Each structure stands twice: as C-alpha cells, then as structure tokens.
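Per your request, structure below.
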C-alpha cells in the first residue's frame, strides 16, 4: 500500500508541475500573439489556455473572453475575422464586414502586420527564455568551467587527436568557446564526426583534428549515443553576472540551445540519431516532476529549454503552426496576392496530419519507456 501511495503521490506531483509549466509557456506564447495583435489594432475575441469546453473564464473591458479550457495541451488566441482558432482562414462572412469591422479584423491587416502577429508567439518564447536565464545568471550564477584540459584519458579520442593536458581549447569547427560546458555540448552532438579544433599550448595556437568516440549514455532522457573526447576539465563553479553581462550571455545560451536542438533534430532526420529521444506529454510531465524535486533553479532552467523548443517547433514551415502561416505569407509576398482558399485548406489539413502523426509517435515513445506497452502485451497474450 505504501508503494502504491508513493506512485500516486509522484503522479500527482508530476502532473501538477507539468500543468503549471505548460500553462506558463502556453500563456507566454499566446500573449506574444495577443500583444502584437492589439498593438496593430486587431480585436481579440478569445484568449484560451487549453482547448475544448470552457472550465471558467471572464470578460475584459475590450470584449475579450479570457478562459481556461478542459484540454490543457496548448492554447489559442482567436482574433476578430477568424474562421476558427487557428487564424488560418477568414470567416465565411468576411466580405460582408462593415468598414469598422474590417478595421479590427486580423485578415484585413497589411501583410507585414499579419506576419508580425504570427511571429509574436515564438518571439515571446525566446524572450521568456532569455529573461529566465538572465535572472538565473544574475542571482544563482552561470555554470562556468574554463575550457582548459585538466586530464587526457589514455587511448581516448582526445589522446589520439593530439590533445594534451594543460591545453586551452579556443575553438571547435570555427566556433569560439570559452567554457568547458560549451566543449561538452558540441562534442556530445558529434559522435564519430571529425572536428577541427584550435588549442592554445605554450602561448601558441595549435590546429588539431579530433574525432569524438561514440558512447552510449543513459540518463533521465533515455538511452542515446553521444560523442566523447576523453578529457576532464577543472572544478565546475557558478559565476554571477551583472545585468548587462547576464542578458548578453542569456542571448548566447538561447542561441546555443536553438542551434543544438536543430542539429539534433536534423540528425534524427538523416538517421544518425535515434528518434526514441522524442518525447510527448507523458515524458514532459515525468521530467517536470523530476526536475522540480531539485528545486526552483533546475525547474526555471528546464522551463527555459522548453520555451526555446516551443518557439522553434512553432516556426517550422508546417501549416497549422506559426511557421506554416509565415510560409503562406512569404508566398503571398512573392505572388502579390494570397494563396487560394482551397490551397490553404489542403495545406492546413496536411499540416494537421503531420502534427498529429508526430504527437502519436512521441506518445508511443512515452508509453514504450513507461513499460505500459509491455504490460498490455503480457495481459492480452
């Protein structure tokens, strides 16, 4: 019974933290759309956290319905003139609008205004990540270990590549590094890939070619293949930054998160990285609960990473996502007029199918990790 209660308690904690994290990130994303839309004179009809039936809500003085809905996996801002919550197509009666209604309709705004409104959601996610990271760097400190090689493991990739103890790593593949953490981040994503490395040795710059070994690592994110040099750095420490430095470094860290995320996803596409690392709501809920047990600092860091991922995913050129809208607007800019309604409808259907397929695949990965699939198989066979 005690074991069962621990499982139940853990489940409640995980789900509770997950809902808080998701609500904050969805609110930030939709607030980006909302603020830029209002700035451009668009009337907002609904601001919803979640989908489906409304649980509770209220009206503001501008006539917007703010509400929480039953399915907490996302949210939307419905603007005046939209046919639905996706803001993909104008309402069927758009041609019958009065001049006053056209003035506040999203689809009657200039192309640049509509593009800015759509891009506002992902932009807000990136800004949120920068703000969170800057606050962490100012208060708790930024992880900082000098990029100096403390020890080289005999027979390792580093030893074979000519790296020596005491070397200061200056750059990898043309990218300047100043922290050992940056080196680890780059190397992890490049197993069995030759890298051009510049090190400072005895006040001279030395060019090396090093190929990280491929090793299997198992952590809270699952089992995956990573690159490893076989070097050890100094003792990690946290360095507090002043506000200006914290913001600059937070921007750099956000950029690095974007770059490494895109690189990892590209590796999945070309088959050099396993797709079993993809996770869905169950995985995020599990990680949220585990990270929250470490305190507020790891949780804020985790939220920053998720916010960056949410912003990136929404910029993918897939209809129904923000990037799909921007793709249509790019076509409109080239053609001088919007794509036909039928072409847009088919595009949104294909996009929705792709998104749902990805969600099903990620959820299947979640179920495989939890062992539920194996339990069901044993039960039915």
């Amino acid at each position: 019974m005690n074991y069962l209660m621990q499982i139940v308690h853990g489940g409640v904690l995980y789900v509770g933290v997950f809902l808080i994290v998701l609500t904050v990130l969805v609110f930030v994303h939709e607030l980006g759309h909302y603020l830029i839309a209002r700035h451009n004179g668009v009337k907002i009809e609904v601001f919803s956290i979640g989908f489906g039936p409304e649980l509770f809500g209220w009206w503001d003085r501008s006539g917007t319905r703010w509400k929480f809905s039953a399915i907490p996996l996302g949210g939307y801002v419905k603007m005046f003139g939209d046919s639905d919550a996706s803001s993909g197509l104008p309402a069927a009666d758009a041609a019958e609008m009065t001049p006053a209604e056209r003035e506040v309709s999203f689809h009657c705004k200039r192309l640049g205004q509509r593009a800015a409104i759509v891009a506002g959601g992902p932009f807000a996610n990136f800004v949120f990540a920068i703000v969170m990271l800057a606050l962490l760097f100012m208060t708790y400190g930024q992880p900082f270990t000098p990029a100096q090689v403390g020890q080289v493991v005999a027979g390792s990739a580093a030893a074979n590549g000519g790296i020596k103890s005491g070397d200061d790593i200056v750059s990898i593949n043309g990218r300047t590094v100043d922290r050992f953490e940056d080196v680890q981040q780059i190397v992890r994503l490049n197993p069995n890939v030759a890298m051009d490395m510049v090190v400072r040795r005895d006040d001279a710059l030395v060019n090396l070619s090093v190929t990280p070994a491929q090793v299997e690592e198992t952590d809270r994110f699952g089992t995956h293949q990573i690159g490893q040099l076989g070097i050890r750095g100094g003792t990690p420490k946290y360095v507090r930054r002043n506000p200006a430095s914290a913001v600059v470094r937070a921007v750099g860290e956000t950029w690095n998160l974007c770059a490494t995320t895109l690189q990892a996803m590209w590796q999945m596409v070309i088959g050099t990285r396993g797709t079993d690392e993809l996770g869905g709501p169950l995985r995020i809920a599990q990680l949220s609960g585990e990270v929250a047990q470490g305190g507020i600092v790891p949780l804020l860091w985790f939220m920053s990473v998720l916010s960056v991922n949410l912003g990136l995913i929404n910029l993918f050129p897939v209809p129904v996502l923000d990037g799909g809208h921007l793709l249509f607007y790019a076509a409109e800019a080239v053609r001088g007029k919007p794509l036909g309604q039928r072409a847009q409808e088919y595009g949104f259907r294909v996009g929705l199918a792709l998104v749902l397929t990805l969600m099903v695949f990620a959820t299947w990965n979640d179920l495989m990790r939890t062992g539920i699939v194996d339990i069901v198989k044993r039960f039915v066979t």
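The chain has a mean pLDDT of 80.

Regards,
D.
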